[in-house]
Amino acid sequence: MIKEKRFELILSSLREKDMVTYADLSMGLTVSEDTIRRDIDYLHKNGLLSKVKGGAIAREKNPLNFQQRLGHRTSEKEIIGKKAQHLLRDGMTIFMDGGSTVCAVAEQFIGTLSLKVITNNLALVPILSGFKNIEVFILGGAYNKETETNVGSKTCEDAMQYVVDLYFMGSCAISKDFGVTSNEENDGATKKSMIKGSKKVILLANSQKIGTEEFFSVCGLDALDIIITELPSNDPRLDSLRYQNVTII
User: Fold this and answer.
1) CATH code of the domain in which 9 resides
2) Which of 29, 61, 93 is the last residue of a domain?
3) Which of 35, 61, 87 is the last residue of a domain?
4) pLDDT tens-digit profile, the chain (249 residues)
5) Minimal CA–CA distance to 169: which of 224, 126, 220, 247?
6) Euclidean distance between CA atoms 231 and 249, whole angstroms
């Protein structure tokens, strides 16, 4: 049985039951439990179910579902900022580029967090100055008053001197066919430079940017490790981004 058909049957079973198990699915689909385990891992990564011990449950039935713990008046950027926090560990070095959503991530940092933050986003400086265990490194370049960022060849050159654990990338647009695109060439060039030195790339994108394109190409979906939106991860508006070897949060 092809994997796409197995995915369909696994999700169909979850619409009828509270939980499915590796053993039951293995018997019902006449494949090994290892195959079912890999299928469930893949569907979990794509935000379509929640993996639990011995099997899976529907994402909306997960008592730890982040989306259900958020107040309905929480802003899109705050939701994205909160979702990003579990990716951080003390001692990390991270890139953070321009944009208010990136600032929303910083506003959610816990007070004791120890990080090195490398950024061209000068709007981050007053936010991060309140965290005594966070070191801030500002990339050089020409200051853009409109975006409150440093940009240009100097910014890109400075960024390429670093190797970081995580890169929180603000986004202008993202689509299945064209990946991440930007409406400013300087912004796009900075993103390209930061991607090169990043062990893991996390795109921050609200739902209005999904399925849209701008004129400057930044990277394909294959350059991303994680996409964070304000949507529940099983929202159909994210379907175009699934099965691209990128985790959806």
Assistant:
1) 1.10.10.10
2) 61
3) 61
4) 788 889 989 998 988 888 999 999 999 999 999 999 999 998 988 888 888 888 998 876 654 444 444 444 458 999 999 999 999 999 999 999 999 999 999 999 999 999 999 999 999 999 999 899 999 999 999 999 999 999 999 999 999 999 999 999 999 999 999 999 999 999 999 999 999 999 999 999 999 999 999 999 999 999 999 999 999 988 999 999 998 999 999
5) 224
6) 8
